[in-house]
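Researcher: Can you fold this with 2-acetamido-2-deoxy-beta-D-glucopyranose in place?
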Amino acid sequence: MNKMTTLHSVFVCIALHFIGTVNTLKSLQIHVPTAVLTGYDAELMCTYELEGAQLYSIRWYRNMIEFYRYVPKESPATKVFPVAEIKVDVAASDQNRVVLTEVDRTLTGEYQCEVSADAPLFHTDIKAAMMVVVEPPLTSPNVTSDRISYIGGDHIRANCSSPPSLPAANITWYVNEQMVPGFTANHVLNYSNGYASSLATLELEAAVHSPVPTLMIRCEASIFDVWRSTSHTIVLRERSANPASALGRSFTGAATETCLPTIMVLLLQFFLQLLQRYSGTSIR
Ligand SMILES: *[C@@H]1O[C@H](CO)[C@@H](O)[C@H](O)[C@H]1NC(C)=O
Ligand SMILES: *[C@@H]1O[C@H](CO)[C@@H](O)[C@H](O)[C@H]1NC(C)=O
Ligand SMILES: *[C@@H]1O[C@H](CO)[C@@H](O)[C@H](O)[C@H]1NC(C)=O
Ligand SMILES: *[C@@H]1O[C@H](CO)[C@@H](O)[C@H](O)[C@H]1NC(C)=O
């Protein structure tokens, strides 16, 4: 602590002692991004109402160490202290805002904003918030499955892996473009350098009489709301136990190009299933 701060603290104590709970500093709020991608700028904001009092100072701290001070009565009003790898864009910063340029992982931490009103009260308030600097994975997540086709009732298992990132990515599964809800069973592998990779396993049981003869499975990896990437989609086809299904499969090849063959395939498969059910023939 320097002399100025000590003197200031003494004033605050004396002022509070005489004035008690009188409050001239209202609704102090801190707005720090929860997450920022490495290499990007981060804008930290502090809003407050002084209710007629003058501003004495704004101080910003990272993990309790002051790196930015704005005192309107001093010239220059802005002081930046060398803390960690923090780079402040002074021209873009003022009594409400501090802009940190090209943040890196070392800047992850707790940021605090302290506002002091001027004499005679020197009322002071402080608020804190966490910011995480994200280093995303270098590639998209990868999905693999233990089979390429299925028949109704089969157990299907798929893995999704997201390469190392900081912090570990969250994995979300999609089956036929429907999000699989409540799926949070992420296995996280920690590495000594702080990075972590994620692996998630999806287990499905194929419906016995599904109107759709395919299962499209993909996964998405995300880190807070600053990074998101999807895997490729794996398409599993239902094998009909009926030998005539060879015909169905030849149609399925064209199904991705136009709409009409898709409907024909669906009708054909439905018809085959009906036929199979009523004739009682099954080669299973
Ligand atoms: C996905 O993982 C499989 C099995 O480990 C591997 O053979 C394949 O190359 C990977 N694909 C991509 C796009 O990384
Ligand atoms: C999924 O991952 C587990 C554990 O790493 C492995 O044993 C299994 O073979 C994988 N399955 C597929 C389909 O990749
Ligand atoms: C990996 O690291 C995270 C965060 O530090 C921790 O919560 C988790 O327990 C660790 N997981 C393992 C398997 O060590
Ligand atoms: C992962 O998801 C949980 C639950 O939605 C969320 O609280 C957490 O912040 C997410 N973590 C990351 C790294 O995105």
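Model: Folded with 2-acetamido-2-deoxy-beta-D-glucopyranose in place. The chain has two domains: 24-133, 142-243.
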